[in-house]
Amino acid sequence: MVVVFANQKGGVGKTTTAVNLGAYLAEMGKRVLLVDFDPQANLSSSVGARGKLPTIYEVLRGDAEISRAIHATPVDRLEVIPSTIHLTGANVELVDVEGREFLLKKALSEVKASYDYVFIDSPPSLGVLTVNGLVAAETVYIPLQCEYFALEGLSLLLSTVDRVRQRFNPSLTIGGIIFTMFDSRTRLAHEVVENVVGHFGRKVFRTIIPRNVRLSEAPSHGLPINLYDPGSIGAKSYKKLAEEVLSRG
Ligand SMILES: Nc1ncnc2c1ncn2[C@@H]1O[C@H](COP(=O)(O)OP(=O)(O)OP(=O)(O)O)[C@@H](O)[C@H]1O
Ligand SMILES: [Mg+2]
Asked: How many domains are contained in the chain?
């Protein structure tokens, strides 16, 4: 299954969720490919792959075979295609390319059969990179921070998903909304969850990821949370989320 993590709002937990959910699915025996499609390359750093070559950028340019851009991570069965800051230029370089929305889908088509899950991490925008992710994916996971402004961008994201569905990818589904950085002490966080569950019902994953400092420390060690601190509350939450993903099928 190809999943894109999307939300044009920055810092909502797209990368953290892609990495740690992917790590637990791999720990549970699934073969997982992480695709860093953000020029910030945070996902690459999070699994110790920043600076490894080739990246998804060379693949899109036709300068490297995709199989060569797949690198190992510290977790068994978890592999990664890293990104680079040069991917920023793709926004401009791709403007005149025919079929530019399909470049990632085309690249992944050669390798996706080798994996149970392909997770695409996208940047905080709704530009050509995120659209490529939405075109390549079967389903979208939307990480949402439990705060008031979380909802503001959601309708724009959903209308982008609709547009991509109409023009490029008719079978694209919303796989679910994932609450991140939940602070149970604030009343607002509870209200936001209630409100979103009221609107989206079963689309919302039941597992809520709490705010946990261990999750924010792990990337600087190049380790997913299952290796950095498996006993932390953040680790337990992502493990539970992985179980929920598996049980949803
Ligand atoms: N549950 C959590 N508890 C504490 N810190 C977290 C949690 N989830 C993510 N963070 C931290 O919050 C910051 C933003 O998270 P992350 O990078 O995953 O968001 P993002 O949506 O990918 O951001 P961007 O839009 O910039 O790509 C990071 O520093 C990350 O380590
Ligand atoms: Mg990110």
From this structure: 1
